[in-house]
Specification:
Shape: globular
CATH topology of one domain: Rossmann fold
Strand content: 25-35%
CATH superfamily of one domain: P-loop containing nucleotide triphosphate hydrolases
Oligomer: single chain
Helix content: 25-40%
Number of strands: 10
Strand order of the largest sheet: 6-7-8-3-9-10
Bound molecules: adenosine-5'-triphosphate, magnesium ion
Order of helices and strands: EEEHEEHEHHHEHEHEEH
Distance between the termini: 14 Å
Largest sheet: 6 strands, mixed
CATH architecture of one domain: 3-Layer(aba) Sandwich
Radius of gyration: 18 Å
């Protein structure tokens, strides 16, 4: 499988603080990789480097072979991004928000049938689609955010804690949808604090600590208790070494 997302010795320093320390990571088409790690571990920094929101201090981020920092516009076209808080226009409906953001991203094929099919795919209620977003729950806003990302027909999806604040059923539905999208060929990189859902949904789990990747684990080989044990060991150990980098 070809790597869609690729970080090569990717590093970011803010002044004297190293937020990301020589990350090597790849996500292939059809693959879901979850990033775990304590607050401040470098997860959002990684995502922001892939998005070209930040310039790396060293190394590079590649999207389907496109170097993000030298060709940011081309790289961003390949990316769908779902932040923790999806920013939508409150007075516009879900359908209108989707149309607006798809126009903004230069997407082709913006007719109502297609827009509705995208909202349908992410599981937004048809009736809700024509209600103002200000009345939406968090999960409904996340679904619109995902529909916007899909509307771009992105090759890769970057998700920064998209599950936080979702109830278990909504989180479960959201994760099932990510698997459908991966099966359609998207490469998915998600930062989350939800260990067990990460294990359930992903192919690979990476654990970040103080800007370093301290573990890369095959999800299928883990059960919940083992994952929690490995995670906590890394969090407690002041001198964790790279366990495996693949
Ligand atoms: N713009 C910035 N200026 C200075 N320091 C920053 C900036 N952005 C992030 N940092 C620092 O970089 C480190 C990594 O932050 P990052 O946001 O990547 O963590 P995270 O793993 O996403 O954490 P969380 O789980 O809380 O979202 C932190 O120490 C943070 O304070
Ligand atoms: Mg973060």
């Amino acid at each position: 499988m070809a790597d869609v997302l690729r970080a090569e010795s990717l590093s970011k320093r803010f002044g004297t603080h190293t937020a990301l320390n020589s990350l090597n990571l790849s996500v292939a088409s059809g693959e879901i990789v979850c990033m775990l790690g304590a607050n401040g571990a470098g997860k959002t920094t990684t995502i922001n480097l892939f998005l070209g929101f930040l310039e790396p201090s060293d190394g590079k981020a590649l999207i389907d072979g496109t170097h993000v920092q030298s060709d940011t516009t081309a790289a961003r076209k390949l990316l769908g991004y779902v932040p923790e808080q999806v920013a939508l226009y409150p007075s516009l409906t879900g359908l209108e928000n989707l149309e607006y953001f798809m126009r903004l991203s230069g997407a082709a094929n913006i007719n109502e049938t297609h827009l509705r099919s995208l909202l349908d795919k992410v599981g937004l209620d048809q009736a809700a689609a024509t209600r103002p977003v200000q009345d939406y729950s968090k999960g409904m806003r996340q679904k619109v955010g995902l529909a916007i990302a899909l509307g771009k027909n992105a090759t890769a999806l970057l998700l920064d804690e998209p599950l936080s604040g979702l109830d278990p059923k909504a989180a479960n539905e959201f994760c099932s949808l990510l698997r459908v999208l991966a099966n359609e060929g998207k490469a998915v990189l998600m930062a989350t604090h939800d260990l067990f859902r990460a294990r359930e949904i992903s192919d690979k789990i990476v654990i970040m600590k103080s800007g370093r990747m301290v573990a890369a684990l095959d999800s299928a080989a883990l059960d919940n208790a083992t994952l929690e044990k490995i995670y906590l060991q890394h969090m407690h150990d002041p001198d964790t070494l790279l366990e495996a980098a693949s």
